[in-house]
Amino acid sequence: MASSAHSYVDPEKPAPYAGSTEKDARSKDFSHDPELLAGELQDFEELEVFRKDGEVDFRTVSWPRATVIFLKIIFATGVLSIPTAMVSLGAVGGALIVIAWGVMNTYTAVIQGDFRNKHAGCHSIADMAMQVGGVWVREIVGFLFVIAYVLCTGSGIVGVTVGLNALSHHAACTVWWGLIATIVVALAASVRKFQQIGWLTWAGFLSIFAAVMIVTIAVTFRDRPAAAPITGDYDLGYYVVPSGVSFAAGVVASSNIFVSSAATSAFLPVISEMRNPREYRKALYVCMGLVTAAYLSVSLVVYRWCGKWVASPSLGSAGQTVKMIAYGIGLIGLVVSACIYLHVAAKYLFVRILRNSRHLQKNTITHWSTWLGLTFGLAFLSFILAEAIPIFNYLLALTGSLCFAPIAIALPGWLWLHDHMHFRKGSSGQQMAFWFHAAFIPLGAFFFVAGTYGVVQEIIAAYADGQIGSAFSCADNSGST
Description:
65% helix
């Protein structure tokens, strides 16, 4: 059994390198490939947060299983909001932004994974922030990380309430549906290991993918969108390039697309539970390639046939019958999405609290009470936020601008600069690379400020226009009654 000393690695301490120092390792021309550099680590396994010889072995995830977990993290609630974003951005603008954010989020995920494998004591994005900015930066990033996935969990809960209202024709108060959804999500998320929730990720991904495909195909068989006037002329609202879109609406739409693939910081705790963390890139590329292709095709088809009449979430865009079929199939996926987001947030706090303690990988009362207390406590917080901001796309957009802009754009740029500071005075190509990555920081700051402003303005307008009745409202949010 591992001792407590072996179960903890201080993220402030640099990794030991075979030979001598990190500088020596770089002199061997490994700096261009962090995976090769990681291979030079002396006793790489000693640096991992979870030891394979602990009483509770968390290191059980293969890279194919990691791929499925990544797919369920990314291909989740985000895909249901992208067609709505197209209404503000148009077909061309929306498609370009889907591709751009897909590439950007993939690359920043590569940076995060490489940094994590080079500094293997890092379990989360907050540990990485500690490496580059110290304690205060770690606490800020850790707070944003938890809030991000609590908000994502809340969006999943909202999606589940919409589905339950659609399936039951609003047979109960929406708040009660939300409470039931929260309890189910908390119970599912309380399973401790990613490996153990592997079958849930398969079921969740397949169910939400099938539901989205059903709606995507079904909208092409309708004479007019389900939400459009039943008779007479109507404006489809489909534009290749729209005009007259407000800044706030454009930022909210872009934030919705950004957040649909920005949750890559949730990959990092999964890497810590992989059998071989250095196979991370395989899972990442497969996941992000499939997700970006699916987002692009689904959003363009649904927007082309529904125009401005697309529903939010988009599963309700093909009429009541198809809506009930889609939610009946996709409900598992919505629950699993919220479950994984909650699990990620709880696992971060769990490791933070029990790290450097025998309780981290030992079945003790402290171990279980901490874990269950975190999952159910964060689930309750997600429920409160879901009821306070009950419009699906606004909740996601707020998550993107307020939380993911700093930790998925700005921070990865800082991480890269930390490991490549010598590029600043290197060759012209190295200097260009240095300043290219330095630009990530102001870009993240821009979306943090502008995006949050835009979302807040849209939420205020939604309350004023009656789109949001009130917090903790019993009203039907599925449009089924």
